[in-house]
Design brief:
Elements (H helix, E strand, L loop, with lengths): L9 H20 L4 H8 L6 H31 L10 H31 L2 H32 L13
The structure holds protoporphyrin IX containing FE (2 copies).
The site of one protoporphyrin IX containing FE (HEM) has 22 residues, from helix 1, helix 4 and helix 5.
């Protein structure tokens, strides 16, 4: 077993950054699906451009789900490095909690979105919308934490998510 490796593999790193880019894209442009979703819920056909915008959101989001499955498989196979041991236990818990929320989000956002979109489940769509502010806060915290580790505490936490272990 490789549960406490020295770093991440190249595939894990590529997946981290591709998923991060797609999730941030979804957060920035997520509202583009709303007009088409609203049209369907009112029993009307969306405009062609509204439907195109909606499809971009749907397929980028489903891509996140596929990549998330791959990512967890690699996590199980290769594990992840320990957090810096000399870091305060409180910060370690906050970092781990953020990771758990982020892992949950890359599954739950596509799943709740798909239930809303394909089955017309409006209440689930509202849960999906709550994901937006939650994710913005957690992603910001996670990114600030990574930059803080790199520039202030000067650990290798950010470097090991950029450079595969030897
Ligand atoms: C990583 C994945 C995803 C993220 C981060 C994400 C994010 C978002 C955001 C930020 C909004 C706008 C919320 C608002 O206007 O307040 C939204 C709306 C929506 N998304 Fe997603 N989304 C993801 C995946 C998906 C997928 C895969 C689908 C469908 C298969 C989907 C369907 C929808 C629908 C139907 C809405 C409109 C909900 C409503 O107006 O009630 N999303 N999403
Ligand atoms: C926007 C979506 C993002 C998601 C969903 C996400 C998700 C995650 C998750 C789940 C982990 C834990 C990996 C593991 O150990 O199994 C992780 C680690 C990491 N993330 Fe992100 N992340 C995102 C954005 C970012 C951004 C913007 C940065 C940097 C500014 C960043 C920097 C890092 C670093 C440095 C690690 C490695 C931590 C360590 O080695 O202990 N992430 N990310």
């Amino acid at each position: 077993m490789h549960s406490h490796p020295a770093g991440y593999t190249r595939a894990q790193i590529v997946l981290h950054w591709v998923i991060a880019a797609l999730v941030i894209f979804q957060l920035v442009f997520g509202e583009d699906i709303v007009p088409a979703f609203r049209a369907y819920r009112q029993g009307t056909e969306p405009q062609a451009d509204a439907l195109l915008n909606a499809n971009i959101h749907v397929y980028v989001g489903l891509a996140v789900l596929v990549l998330a499955i791959l990512r967890v498989a690699l996590r199980i196979r290769y594990g992840a490095p320990d957090l810096p041991a000399d870091e305060s236990i409180v910060l370690q818990y906050i970092a781990k909690l953020a990771h758990i929320v982020l892992y949950a989000a890359i599954f739950l956002m596509p799943l709740t979105g798909a239930l809303a979109w394909y089955l017309g489940m409006g209440e689930i769509g509202e849960l999906h919308e709550i994901g937006k502010p939650v994710l913005i806060v957690v992603v910001a915290l996670h990114a600030v934490g990574a930059l803080w580790q790199h520039f202030v505490v000067k650990t290798d936490v950010l470097r090991r998510m950029l450079k595969p272990m030897a």
